[in-house]
Specification:
The complex is a heterodimer of chains A (179) and B (156).
Chain A: H1 7-13, E1 18-25, E2 28-33, E3 37-42, H2 43-46, E4 50-52, E5 61-67, E6 70-76, H3 77-81, E7 90-94, E8 99-103, E9 105-112, H4 126-129, E10 130-136, E11 139-144, H5 152-162, H6 165-171
Parallel strand pairs in A: 6-8
Antiparallel strand pairs in A: 1-2, 1-9, 3-7, 4-5, 5-6, 7-8, 10-11
Chain B: E1 8-14, E2 17-22, E3 26-31, E4 45-51, E5 54-59, H1 61-64, E6 75-83, E7 86-94, E8 99-102, E9 104-106, E10 116-122, E11 125-130, H2 132-135
Parallel strand pairs in B: 2-11
Antiparallel strand pairs in B: 1-2, 1-8, 3-6, 4-5, 6-7, 9-10, 10-11
The chains are: A alpha+beta (179), B mainly beta (156).
């Protein structure tokens, strides 16, 4: 007797699995795709490469960071998400954006296979912040959108604050995805 | 919502008032479960519940009805929302148990807010029937309300 393969289990076998990094900001757990992160460094190790940026329009950015001849805007994740201020110890340097994110700690890596869409009831800025939600041991964890830390308007304001047009060209055009 | 075709309604208590919803959009009533929160910017959402593997946004109906304190309900009523042609489940905190009633439908009272679709006459009590599509905003900010509870922004 031949037993036909269960088509549902076949579909599950082909569900794409994504590696994410779980990190914490002000005791709130988030996830980010591991392939969106270029490197993770301690704030101490990067202090020499960081510069203050004098601007008030984008309050979540107080520093720029130069790494491997590229410049990044350092976003304080607690300020970005409206969480209480913390003392972040780690920086996530993103791969495809001129953004580095200050976080409190890395929890672990996880593999996820089901990213649930953010319910339509959420209709504020969070629709740009998150790619969706994932359930880990019945805990809802938002999966951040790496492009959501700085929108094109904020990038433009920061580029203007950093300095001259020459500086903006060296850093890249506003919103430019880095090669 | 065409309240005139509805037969059964679920009556719920919010802020000491009783309201009704068409029974066809009500999924279940669950006891207060762990509300999970994460950062967001939608003023009238309290967080989310996980129910049968689904993530349900918790809509604070009390806030939407004008109670600035919101409601910490003992129960959650799981309801179905139609939005942009799609269906989405949500949870509404309610104060107590709900009941299923049938009755005569009357037009909404004069001057009622747009989210009051009709009045349900049941056991000589008039209960406002809510239309969720007009009560729950499509923008993140709480709608401002003129005296009497009418929404300032039109709901399409």
């Amino acid at each position: 007797m031949r037993i036909r393969a269960n088509s549902a289990s076949g579909a599950r076998r082909h569900q794409p699995v994504e590696q994410v990094i779980l990190f914490t900001v002000a005791e709130q757990l988030f996830a980010i795709a591991s392939n969106a992160v270029h490197e993770i460094r301690s704030t101490d190790s990067l202090s020499a490469a960081a510069s203050d940026i004098a601007q008030q329009e984008v309050k979540k950015v107080c520093h720029t960071l130069r790494r491997e001849r590229r410049a990044y805007y350092v976003v304080n994740a607690a300020a970005h998400f409206g969480l209480p201020a913390t003392r972040p110890t780690l920086v996530l340097v993103l791969r495809d954006f001129r953004v580095a994110v200050l976080v409190d700690r890395i929890e672990r890596m996880e593999s996820i296979s089901l990213l649930q869409p953010l319910p339509q009831a959420f209709c504020g800025a969070e629709r740009q912040w998150y790619r969706g939600l994932v359930l880990l041991d019945n805990v809802v964890v938002p999966v951040v959108n790496p492009a959501g830390f700085l929108n094109p308007q904020e990038m433009t304001l920061l580029d203007a604050a950093v300095g001259s047009r020459a500086n903006a060209e060296r850093f890249g055009a506003p919103g430019e995805v880095m090669p | 919502m065409s309240a005139g075709n509805e037969k059964s309604f679920v009556v719920l208590s919010v802020c000491g008032f009783r309201f009704a919803l068409p029974a066809r959009i009500v999924g279940e009533l669950v006891a207060a479960e762990r509300l999970q929160k994460f950062p967001h910017a939608t003023a009238w959402l309290r967080g989310v519940l996980v129910r049968r593997g689904r993530i349900l946004p918790v809509c604070d109906v009390a806030l939407l009805l004008g109670d600035s304190h919101g409601l910490r309900g003992k129960f959650y009523l799981v309801v179905r929302r139609e939005l942009n042609g799609a269906t989405e489940w949500a949870a509404l905190p309610v104060e107590g148990e709900c009941e299923l009633v049938s009755g005569e439908l009357l037009p909404p009272p004069e001057g009622a807010p747009p989210y009051v679709a009709a009045q349900l006459l049941a056991r000589q009590e008039r209960i406002e029937v809510l239309e969720l599509a007009k009560l729950i905003p499509r923008q993140a900010a709480l709608p401002s309300r003129s005296p009497g509870g009418a929404l300032a922004e039109s709901q399409t």
